[in-house]
Amino acid sequence: MKKRIAVITKEDMKSSDIRADILADIQKDGGFSLCICDDASKISDEDVVLIFGGDGTVLEVVRAVAEKNIPVLCVNLGNLGFLAEYEKSVKSQDVVNALKSSDLRERMMLCVNLSSGVSERALNDVVIRSLSSRPIYIDVYVDGKFVDSYHSDGAIVSSPTGSTAYSLSAGGPILAPDVYAFVINPICAHSLHSRPLVVSADSIVEMRVKGECACVCVDGNTTYTLEKGGVVTVKKSSKTAKFVCSGDDDFYKKLLQKMNRWGTTECTEG
Questions:
Q1: Which of 25, 39, 45, 55 is catalytic?
Q2: pTM of the shown model
């Protein structure tokens, strides 16, 4: 039986030469059935999703297919590409070989619930921000115990995967992918003591917004308005994001290469 591959491509990258070469080699191989998709939410029974794009496209697709336990494989045609397995310099045959593989790595996801009844999954993070330019007050609870009251521009709860994204820019720590934890991180806190906090992924985190409405953003993609006194609850999702492995799964090497791409530090072997 042929392996069923759904192909998702960021709109402005559909004319990419590397995309055309890879799809041609996949069809030439004869062991695959290709389905070109424009909407990840309509993917239902494919074996793998092949993504041509950047991290934003990966986040969108992963959230759409996590419930169906479908793994993804990304060729980075975007900017940073931290979630991509391959860069645009990849050889087409390497992608074909990876699609034949059954080696997967899993990443923790977040289950995000709003007091309004909205429920979402996130691979990276959930962010609460003020709807205005003023700081807001957010009371933070972990497993029902009061932790702190942030007077800040907002707050981030991130997974280990998301710890290298917005949370890192906001001064948070980097967690290795296999660390079983969340990062709770205030954004520009007007305080000398409010600092990022790492808690167990078995914890339930509550963020209670006081005094005004707020904006809640899930994975930088989907945005909701939280009413005055609203609560955002975050816990570990029962579903994980699944990624096809190429064999070179060196997180620290990728960290050096990606995080220093505009700097002077080079990743050396040995």
A1: 55
A2: 0.91
